[in-house]
């Protein structure tokens, strides 16, 4: 580099690897028997999982609602919102691991190791909304700390929305669970509620997409990542897709459907 006729010393540098996501087209799935039901898993039998779903919780009382979809030569993640026997469940898929079912609630780890700097997440998707008509089981006061009754009542009758987000995070929220270190632990039980917050100072970059209108044909879109810190390297990537935006609160429309395919990080 030269400035005002003065040259710097010769120096070397390297760019970060333009890493991509394993099984990003959701071609690889396997099933195992749980309680006499097929538990769908978004990885090939014998492979190390990169993605997981809430199916392990759903299959305690009903069928998997996040499954492999097939249309012609296309395979994809078929994320169906459903009322499963006693509780609403959004179809979902995320980078990380489902750790345990706590009653009818889940304990999950969000995030997989990642140290690159993408600018956008590209994906193909289609979406069918339905009327937001259910939440939890029956309403009770335990949900008051979770989502207010006024908010819940205000949402009823509106179109449900899907949500997809991507975050690059550091190590500030790491937590040991049963002797294993995880990037970020989510708990959906109201009394121990802990959800992912995009506003945390552990989030280095974040981007999201919410859609409440039908998108009947497969459509390609991009989600830009907004960097909040440019002097910190990510340690993990979190990607979450849910058919119902308020699925964390067990609130949504019981016929909402999100299909996603061909995720790609752009640099």
Care to describe what's here?
The chain has 267 residues and is mainly beta. Helices cover 4% and strands 46% of the residues. It has two helices and 24 strands. The strands form seven sheets. Strands 5, 10, 11, 12, 15, 18, 19, 21 and 22 form a nine-stranded antiparallel β-sheet that branches. A five-stranded antiparallel β-sheet has the order 6-7-24-13-20, with no helix packed on it. The protein has a two-stranded antiparallel ribbon with strand order 1-2. Strand 16 and strand 17 (180-182) form a beta hairpin.
First-to-last CA distance: 25 Å
Instruction: Determine the structural class based on helices, strands and strand pairing.
Output: mainly beta
What sequence of helices (H) and strands (E) makes up the elements?
A: EEEEEHEEEEEEEEEHEEEEEEEEEE
Major pleated sheet: 9 strands, antiparallel
Which whole number gives the mean pLDDT?
Answer: 91
Low-confidence stretches: none
């Amino acid at each position: 580099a030269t400035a005002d006729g003065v040259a710097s010393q010769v120096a070397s540098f390297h760019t970060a690897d333009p890493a991509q996501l394993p099984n990003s087209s959701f071609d690889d799935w396997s099933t195992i028997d749980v309680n006499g039901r097929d538990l769908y898993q978004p990885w090939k039998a014998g492979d190390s999982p990169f993605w997981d779903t809430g199916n392990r919780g759903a299959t305690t009382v009903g069928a998997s609602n996040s499954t492999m979809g097939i249309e012609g030569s296309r395979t994809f993640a078929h994320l169906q919102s459903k009322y499963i026997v006693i509780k609403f469940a959004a179809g979902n898929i995320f980078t990380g691991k489902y750790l345990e079912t706590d009653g009818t609630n889940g304990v999950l780890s969000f995030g997989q190791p990642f140290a690159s700097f993408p600018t956008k997440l590209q994906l193909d998707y289609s979406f069918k909304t339905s009327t937001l008509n259910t939440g939890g089981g029956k309403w009770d006061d335990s949900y008051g700390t979770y989502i207010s009754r006024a908010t819940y009542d205000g949402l009823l009758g509106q179109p449900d929305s899907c949500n997809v987000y991507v975050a690059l995070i550091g190590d500030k929220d790491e937590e040991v669970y049963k002797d294993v270190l995880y990037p970020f632990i989510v708990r959906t039980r109201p009394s121990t509620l802990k959800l992912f917050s995009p506003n945390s100072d552990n989030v280095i970059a974040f981007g999201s997409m919410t859609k409440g209108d039908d998108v009947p044909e497969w459509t390609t879109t991009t989600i830009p990542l907004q960097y909040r810190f440019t002097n910190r390297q990510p340690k993990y990537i979190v990607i979450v897709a849910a058919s119902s935006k308020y699925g964390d609160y067990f609130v949504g429309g019981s016929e909402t459907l999100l299909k996603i395919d061909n995720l790609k990080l752009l640099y």
